[in-house]
What we know:
- By secondary structure, this protein is mainly beta.
- Helices cover 14% and strands 42% of the residues.
- It contains one helix and six strands, in the order ββββββα.
- Strands 1, 2, 3, 4, 5 and 6 form a six-stranded antiparallel beta sheet that branches.
- The longest helix is centred in the C-terminal third of the chain and has 14 residues, at 85-98.
Amino acid sequence: MPEDSDAYRFRDRPESIDAPSRQSKFGTVVDEVGVYQNGSGKDYWKVIQRIENDDEDWETHIRVGYYAGTDGEWSWSSRPMMLQTQMLNELYAQAVSAGILTD
């Protein structure tokens, strides 16, 4: 497992972003793993999320993305997420360990 550094901290969700379960546009985010990235100008909470919905035709979905924030104000971004290979591998391993990717 990569060690936390000045730039990246695993499992350090910003207080302004509610822990799951929470509503999203597509259903309920029931679980997530994430890594906090201290950026220049903005900070990031980069995540792999499990989304479920009560609709009987809905299948569980996995969403990869990030929140960007400054001064405690965070917003979801639908743009592609970038992470160093080692950090993405650790985030993915955490998602597997947490059962996020399992039906």
